[in-house]
Amino acid sequence: MRHQTMTKLLSGTALVAALTAFVASSAFAQEAVIAFDAGELGATSYDPVTSSNLNTATSMIYDRLVEQDADQSFHPHLANSWEEASDGMSWTFKLHEGVTFHDGTAFDAQTVADWIPDYADTENAFLTAAIESVEVIDPLTVKFVMNRPEPNLLYNLGSAFMGIPSQAAVEEMGADYGVAGAVGTGPFKLERFDIGLETVLVRNDDHAWASDLSENQGVAHFERLTFREIPDQSTAFLELKTGGVDVLLGIPTDFIEVLKAEPNVTVIQMPGTGISYMPINVTAAPFDDIRVREATGLAIDQEAIVASIYKGVGAPAHNFLISSLPEATVDPALNVTHDPERAGALLDEAGWTMGDDGVRMKDGAPLEVKLFTQNGSEFTVLTQVVQAQLAAIGMKADITVFDSSTIRDEYKENRHQLAVRAYDWNNSDILDWFFSGERLGYPNVSMWNDPEGEQLNKVAMEGSANSEERIANFTAYHEYILSQHLMVPIYQPTTNLAFNADRVSVPDPVRGTRFRSQTVLDMKPAE
Amino acid sequence: MTSMTGTAARMMSGFGNTSLGRAFGSILGKVAGGFLVLLLLTAIFAPWITPFDYAAQNLMNGNQPPGWPHLLGTDQFGRDVLSRVIYGARTSLSVSATAIAISITVGMTLGAAAGYFGGLFERCVMTVVDLTWSFPDILIALIFVAIIGPGLTSTTFAIAIAYLAQFTRLTRAQIVRLKRETFIEATINLGAKPHHILLRHLLPNAIAPVIVVGMLAIGDGIVLEATLGFFGLGAQPPTPSWGAMMSSGTAQLFLSPWVIIFPGVVVAVTVIMVNLFGDELIRALDIRDRIRGA
């Protein structure tokens, strides 16, 4: 009551408002503002089961059965231990005791049994496709009966898409789940979600089941986290510099130098888990001609791009997977490398002859194509270099810059030819995600649907009895994709984050494969 | 009758060389006008006077400070900033001038018809036109971008619509005022048709303030084009536009400030010069009251 009166009395003047803001900023030092990676912008839901685009805040709302570390090993989380049958046809998980959801309901074997079938008929169905049924052995033991061996099961269970939601909340909210609310067992609860703007999380004071990747086994050090979506990296950088943002995720390489020069900013560089690339729409002429597609790939000088605009940070990409994956080791002849002479020869052969103005012509029509990109300097800068390199082989590319959600609509409408994109995923099943004939438009921006490809996809996704077979099958699928020239790999960035050391401290190296809940648990307010 | 010849004669001569000459008369007018003429020539002859190709990249020569041979330095792609600023004049001036020309044509037609015919027609036109004034320019631009995609066409239409209300209101006010003049009443009584009265007697007498406001609007249009370009809604890369150049420069603000400073200075100076010259023109034409009247 007294507090209310005080508030009313004070709220009148601007001076007091400013004072309150000042006091608030120091009194609530247990708050942190984090700006998402540009690649994570535009998530429309926090429902891990149905959404195909999740941001890193998802990992803080939900816990997973297992967690993956940077060395690719798997660690217990909501599952204390697990065992795979020798034939790979069943998996048994022992669950952590005493775990409760944010809504107070208990997490147990029945939760898992109710949750897994929800994936059927969603975009994410591939994650659980190998699971025939889930049996509850006792309240803390659950058994997955498999319809085929799945060497990738632990990876799937550790991905953000397999955070475990409260079944009671999912039932209650129905189709609104993930937008109106999201209820997990994670170290933070969802307080507010303004799509495209910001997400506010508050601490889950009951959380006592952190994975062993975090040093902190209790509740998080921060009471409140605000995740902001800032599309432009320069703006995000200025926000960090001026104190509007405490942690900046996914900094483009060209900013590292500038950030390191700031006295209060600390930069953490991690091995990258993604690729920047240029998908080619195989249904749009002239790219229905494989020779034109191959020539397009040969036009791009990955080494020059890394050396110049990325100042040597990161690595060139010559195929579709990050080099730390075994499936990235393919027949060297299939790797995409710079060879403008051969590009010219291929275009000549395809009937595109060099015109006087430096643009190739065929049947009186110029070789003019659409090159789509997203706003934000990390995309537009690379796109302009790509444009110039394509011009060097006589291909005139017209750039159009879209925002992240409009560009997906354009893909789905099949209005694109070339695009500059990036993905962040450290598993070879990304090949299925971007090249499966079942996802034409988006994510299959290449619009590729080929019987042999579908066959190799099926074998890779479902036909492997163990890890070795899986590697061989995915390598074969990867090689076939490369042989069809569906995209041009360009760059493997490092993953970088920066934080304001006057405000917060982020553990270096980060826990796990990327900045997720394990790292956030160990993140502290600066002293 | 004396009033008619007096007004008409002043209006007609006001549009002739004498007044333009008078606008150039003062030192301020000479400087501003001279700058604008120079800028116009630069824009027209851009392909012949730029030292480098505005789109030619040289990745190994990026972010070079001003010096030789790149007088204003290079951007992060190693492109010559001077050449891009010169070409940017072309983009900015042509978009702004085209947009304002559309605005004037449509605005004068609507305003003249509304002012002459009056009644319900006038109220409808003015309501619709005033409505466009209530939307922020950026929002209008976004609507066009959503319909026809980002690019200079959307920018042009957005600027044209943003300034439509101004010209419609201005023309209407002139026509309403002139309609009451004796020489118009005389013409009506002599049996002239509406189109004859509008085209021969009303519009020529109403055009001088419109031209001046149009001149000033071109300055505003340049700023609006730069704003839209800054947000990526205008010229698509690598076409240089001053706004887009500043936008891409923000990423390198602390490493290579020249990429953002030069286009910024050019926009500022151009707009100041346009306004100064506009003021001189108003003075020379002696129409300050009539512009205020709108």
UniProtKB/TrEMBL annotation, chain A:
Q: Which UniProt keywords apply?
A: Lipoprotein, Signal
Q: Which Pfam families match?
A: SBP_bac_5
- The Solute-binding protein family domain is annotated at 74-429
Show the CDD domains listed in the entry. Answer: PBP2_NikA_DppA_OppA_like_15 (cd08492)
Q: Name one GO molecular function term.
A: peptide transmembrane transporter activity
The principal localisation class reads periplasm
Q: Where in the cell is it found?
A: Periplasm
> Which is a Gene Ontology cellular component entry for this protein?
ATP-binding cassette (ABC) transporter complex
Task: Report the InterPro entries cross-referenced here.
Answer: Peptide/Ni-bd, SBP_5, SBP_5_dom
Q: Which family does it belong to?
A: Belongs to the bacterial solute-binding protein 5 family.
Q: What is this protein called?
A: Hemin-binding lipoprotein
UniProtKB/TrEMBL annotation, chain B:
Residues passing through the membrane, by range = 27-50, 93-118, 138-165, 206-235, 255-278
Q: Which domain of life is it from?
A: Bacteria
Q: State the InterPro entries in the record.
A: BP-dependent_transpt_permease, MetI-like, MetI-like_sf, OppC_N
> Any idea which UniProt keywords this protein has?
Cell membrane, Membrane, Transmembrane, Transmembrane helix, Transport
Q: What is its main location?
A: membrane
Q: Could you mention a single GO BP entry for this protein?
A: transmembrane transport
Q: How does it sit in the membrane?
A: Multi-pass membrane protein
Gene encoding the protein:
gsiD_3
Localization terms from the record: Cell membrane
Q: Which residues form the ABC transmembrane type-1 domain?
A: 89-278
PANTHER family from the UniProt entry? OLIGOPEPTIDE TRANSPORT SYSTEM PERMEASE PROTEIN APPC, PEPTIDE ABC TRANSPORTER PERMEASE PROTEIN
Q: Name one GO cellular component term.
A: plasma membrane
Q: Which family does it belong to?
A: Belongs to the binding-protein-dependent transport system permease family.
> What protein am I looking at?
Glutathione transport system permease protein GsiD
Biological source species: Jannaschia donghaensis
